[in-house]
Amino acid sequence: QYKFRDLTIEELKNVTKTYPNFTFSMNTYTFKDGSQKDLLNFSGTVPVKYGNSYNIPIHLWILDSHPFAPPICFLKPTANMGISVGKHVDANGRIYLPYLQNWSHPKSTVIGLIKEMIAKFEEELPLYSLSSSDADRQSELLSYIAKITEEEADVKSKSKIGGGKNEGCFNKITVVGAGDLGIACVLAVAAKGSADKVVLLDLSEGAAKGGTMDLEIFALPNVEISKDFSASADSKVVVLTVNSLGNAQTYLDVIQSNVDLFRGIIPAISHYSQKSVLLVASHPVEVMTYVSWKLSAFPKTRVIGVGANLDTERFQYILTNHLKAQVLAKGAWIIGEQGEDKVPSWTSCNLVANQTEAMAARNSREKVANRAMEVLKGKGQRSWSVGLSVADLTDSILKDKRKIHSISTLAKGCCNINSEVFLSLPCILGTNGVIEMVKLEEDPLVQEKLQSSAGSIHDLQQQLKL
């Protein structure tokens, strides 16, 4: 079942030569979404010098897309060991390292990963002994409390220097991906002014280049560029703009490459910003929002996609300013999936009571909507325009505006859709993401199109390996 079996076996042979204490087996791994898969895994110890020499037990799971996807790494403490939660280890013992986030075959290898693991563990030992005396434990506890107290005092001091903002009100946004779209999002969000800090996570290989280099040169205030996922800690919103640039042959291969990419990103993001709203701008947005939801295990309200927000804003603008149909624009939305299958809809019916007049009014509205859709087709979606849309959405979230946006959200239960798919639907956005989905006017043709989109998206998702 391993796609690149020969490459995987060759690499693991090299591991056994360097670390002969490792043992290999096939076992069932349970992902965050509850799905399971039989995966190759190995356990062993790595030597770490932290004053004394220690053998740190680890457990690595090899995904079936290896070596193009990074392993899933855990500590494997014995009964008398406790986990020291820190920058690179969570309470469950899962290991987070820059090497994993920047994984890229053939440059990245398991041996290289283990070497970085040793280096990071020598900076911050991930395990401690549970066999120490009560006095030692009490001393450690008091030391830990003192450290927390000092950190809290330091945060309060920095908050006062920064203008009296406390940590609870600090609005931080992280943009993942330093391509054209990622940089456009950083510039638009920074210009909007609703974020106190914007972090750009650059996952590209090598030194800063292109737009990232320009951002560093001109040093925008409140913008930080980093390659370390820990820089995203405590973000209110995390915007995902990355897309795989692999040599995939089919559309399904392209999406699977994105899924493999997200598998190394989402766990780290959800670890460092456990209460954030994930805003997906990667393509295809409906599928990648679903993937983000599954991999993060966040509530559905806190995982959304940019969806048709940009198209909706343009649609309403065209109706109001080009076609002078202000009344129609008020409840007008573009919904469904991005691309040619998007569809106009309304949240309220402005038709008159008389059936004949209602039919005439509906026909008139459809003609105006068709004209607006024709104008909309020629607009396209450039990076800077999507960036402006992202800034609009993050502004509504950070300021708890409770404004209605057409965004990708879990559509199950709407319009008789029974599958777990994400489609653009009008939703009220606030601090914690989706507050409420706005009820659409009942239109059999619209519902039919939504169900068709849901069916095709669901079929595609079923072919992916999460």
CATH superfamily of the largest domain: Lactate dehydrogenase/glycoside hydrolase, family 4, C-terminal
Distance from N terminus to C terminus (CA atoms, Å) equals 14 Å
Number of helices: 13
Q: What topology, given as strand order, has the largest sheet?
A: 9-8-7-10-11-12
The third-level CATH topology of the largest domain is L-2-Hydroxyisocaproate Dehydrogenase, Chain A, domain 2
- The proportion of residues forming helix, as a percent range, comes to 40-55%
Description:
Helix content is 41%, strand content 21%. It folds into three domains: 5-129, Ubiquitin Conjugating Enzyme; 172-299, NAD(P)-binding Rossmann-like Domain (Rossmann fold, 3-Layer(aba) Sandwich); 308-463, Alpha-Beta Complex (L-2-Hydroxyisocaproate Dehydrogenase, Chain A, domain 2). The chain has helices spanning 5-18, 98-101, 110-123, 134-161, 180-192, 210-218, 251-272, 285-296, 309-322, 326-330, 355-377, 383-398, 444-462; strands at 23-30, 36-50, 52-62, 72-75, 81-83, 127-129, 172-176, 197-201, 223-226, 237-240, 277-280, 303-305, 332-335, 343-346, 403-410, 422-430, 433-437. The strands form five sheets. It has a six-stranded parallel β-sheet with strand order 9-8-7-10-11-12. Strands 1-2-3-4 form a four-stranded antiparallel β-sheet. A three-stranded antiparallel β-sheet has the order 15-16-17. The chain is an alpha/beta fold and 466 residues long. A hairpin with a 5-residue loop joins strand 1 and strand 2 (36-50).
